[in-house]
């Protein structure tokens, strides 16, 4: 029987009952491309389960997980002790507490941004990796034939069993350099080597990105713990000053059920609720903050002990940051999804995102309202109000003065605004509305064009 040169595995070795030298190498490459395919079928399920529970690798992995859990618990304990010491050091110094809150809230939002960016980068990388692996898997026969031919051309014994794409790639490159290779075979080998090279590079990039993502998530968790402790301390001090805070909150919710519109709610709060009325009166008495050469004095934002807005709302155009990290999905004047026009903007964000104030102001309402979910209303002075809705939890009280960039709420895992729910939004959405003398206005001019222009307190 005559040999066919294009079928390198049909050799005398087969007729003698033993495989050619290149066969283990071909099997190795298949394992590298689909690392679970051959090994998953090597033993019945019962034996696999038994091996998994008794293997040294499994025991070592469990020990590592246990040690990691202990280390995490130790760090959490250390963090709690440090938080207690920091809060004790702050004491009743309101300016220090405010500055800590603004700084940590800024760090949280910065890490949230990095996590979002990393997840966005990982998505196409993972897709490309799956695409290359699928392509290589579909060309298994070609891979086996090329590698076997290259190994014989180099007249070298194939390497031991391989389990990684990196090993397959190195062997391909080495084999291509051994002796002469026919042009057609070399082209095929170079194509395979290029795909394997890209796969190896992608895996390294993905690994690096995932390591950075894990570090950022650990930092976010620690920062959120610290922020929660500081917020609790802020509210504890606030409650100590306003003894009837809880009763005021209950009365506010009761009053909110008596009105149907946001404008009616604002009027009701500032007329009938003692703490909100006091905040509104204070806002009206403050007057307009001083300007420098006709421009707002941004130095006022550096005072964390201030009890009135650093700059007049009307003159703060181009300075505000969005209250949450997210993507604008609806703009002022567009469709609100319920047959009407949007009176504010809607920002799609990540679950659990931190919400901060875009401006200084007095809280005149904080609680649930109609179809808005949790609603926060700030009196920013000069007849301006800022409405923020769709959060899961609000962490400030009515009558409280809050600073630009101060944490005031947390997003949930789904959208809580009825008009957004109508569009089947798959992520939480924050609704933001600006009003002047009761009328909704376009907030666009107030948002900073870039990161460097934003004021965060």
- Overall geometry comes to elongated
Rg over C-alpha atoms, rounded to the nearest angstrom: 32 Å
Structural class: alpha+beta
Give the terminus-to-terminus CA distance: 86 Å
> Helical residue percent?
40-55%
Number of helices: 12
The strand count comes to 13
The portion of residues forming beta strands comes to 5-15%
Mean pLDDT: 75
Uncertain segments = 1-43, 157-163, 177-181
Our count of domains comes out at 2
Order of helices and strands: HHHHHHHHHHHEEEEEEEEEEEHEE
User: Biggest sheet, in brief?
Assistant: 8 strands, antiparallel
Q: What are the main properties of this structure?
A:
Glucose Permease (Domain IIA); alpha+beta; 457 residues; 3-stranded antiparallel beta sheet; 13% strand; 8-stranded antiparallel beta sheet
Show the helix and strand layout.
Elements: H1 12-15, H2 23-33, H3 45-54, H4 56-90, H5 94-138, H6 140-154, H7 165-177, H8 183-241, H9 245-256, H10 262-272, H11 274-285, E1 291-292, E2 295-296, E3 326-330, E4 345-349, E5 354-356, E6 361-368, E7 374-381, E8 384-391, E9 393-394, E10 401-402, E11 407-410, H12 418-421, E12 429-436, E13 439-441
Antiparallel strand pairs: 1-2, 3-4, 4-12, 5-11, 6-7, 6-10, 7-8, 8-12, 9-11, 12-13
Helix pairs in contact: 2-6, 2-7, 4-8, 5-8, 6-7, 6-8, 7-8, 10-11
């Amino acid at each position: 029987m005559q040999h066919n040169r294009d079928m390198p595995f049909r050799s005398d070795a087969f007729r003698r009952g033993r495989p050619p030298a290149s066969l283990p190498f071909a099997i190795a490459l298949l394992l590298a491309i689909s690392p679970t395919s051959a090994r998953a079928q090597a033993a019945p399920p019962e034996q696999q389960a038994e091996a998994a529970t008794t293997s040294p690798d499994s025991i070592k992995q469990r020990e590592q997980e246990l040690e990691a859990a202990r280390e995490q618990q130790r760090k959490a304990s250390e963090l709690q002790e440090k938080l207690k010491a920091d809060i004790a050091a702050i004491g009743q110094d309101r300016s220090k507490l405010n500055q800590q809150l603004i700084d940590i809230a800024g760090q949280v939002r910065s890490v949230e941004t990095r996590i979002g960016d990393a997840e966005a980068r990982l998505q196409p990388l993972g897709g490309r990796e799956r695409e290359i692996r699928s392509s290589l898997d579909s060309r298994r026969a070609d891979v086996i034939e090329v590698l076997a031919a290259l190994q014989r051309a180099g007249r070298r014994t194939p390497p031991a069993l391989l389990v990684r794409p990196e090993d397959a790639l190195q062997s391909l490159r080495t084999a291509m350099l051994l002796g002469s290779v026919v042009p057609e075979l070399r082209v095929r080998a170079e194509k395979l080597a290029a795909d394997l090279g890209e796969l190896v590079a992608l895996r390294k990039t993905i690994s690096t990105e995932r390591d950075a993502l894990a570090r950022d998530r650990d930092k976010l968790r620690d920062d959120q713990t610290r922020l929660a402790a500081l917020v609790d301390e802020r509210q504890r001090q606030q409650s100590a000053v306003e003894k009837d805070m809880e009763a005021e909150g209950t009365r506010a919710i009761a009053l909110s059920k008596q009105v149907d519109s946001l404008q009616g709610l604002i009027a009701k709060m500032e007329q009938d609720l003692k703490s909100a009325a006091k905040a509104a009166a204070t806002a009206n008495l403050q007057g307009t903050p001083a300007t420098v050469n006709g421009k707002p004095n941004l130095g006022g934002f550096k005072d964390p002990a201030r009890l009135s807005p650093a700059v007049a709302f009307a003159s703060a155009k181009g300075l505000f940051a969005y209250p949450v990290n997210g993507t604008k999905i609806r703009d002022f004047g567009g469709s609100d999804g319920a047959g009407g026009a949007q009176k504010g903007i809607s920002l799609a964000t990540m679950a659990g995102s931190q919400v901060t104030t875009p401006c200084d102001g007095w809280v005149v309402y904080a609680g649930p309202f109609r179809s808005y979910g949790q609603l926060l209303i700030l009196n920013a002075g000069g007849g301006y109000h800022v409405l923020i809705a769709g959060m899961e939890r609000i962490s400030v009280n009515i009558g409280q003065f809050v600073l630009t960039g101060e944490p005031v709420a947390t997003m949930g895992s789904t959208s809580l605004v009825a008009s957004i729910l109508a569009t089947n939004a798959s992520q939480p959405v924050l609704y933001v509305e600006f009003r002047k003398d009761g009328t909704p206005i376009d907030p666009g001019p107030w948002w900073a064009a870039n990161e460097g222009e934003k004021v965060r307190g």
